[in-house]
Structure prediction request, 163 residues.
Amino acid sequence: MNANQCRQRLSELLQAQIGRIANANEYLLTIKSAIAENRLENLQQTLTSPQLAIEDIEQLEQQRYQLLETCGFGKDSNGLEKCIAWCDDDQNQLSELYQQLIKNLFDLRHSIQINSLLVNKGQERVRRSIGILTGTTATGSCKTYSEKGQAVDPAGRRDIAIA
Prediction:
């Protein structure tokens, strides 16, 4: 494979990865906003049509590895940089695409982290609410109050309907 063929194929792969990652990031941002604003209908609608094409992104990554091996370069980022230096044109199109790919990957990682924090926060809120309703905490030992306002052990707690 010559430098022009390598440049063409690598450009196609990088553009496809950039597009898929951007779509995945938009999907996660939509989920984040639905969670943050507590819009359950929008969240359910978004989750019924998943657009997180992780398999596609991984498949494109594998195709890029195969291209690098075919051209005689390593699969790691160092090999990719050497390949770009070998086959990129004077306009540095591949270098720019690679930088955009890295930026999109960082944005995707950030979105995943934010969504994870929001989900954990929501789970903690649910746990606290259940603890309040049942009179227990995550450890299972929490005191409740009697009719007279005195603290009692959970074993002696009253039914919530009576309280």
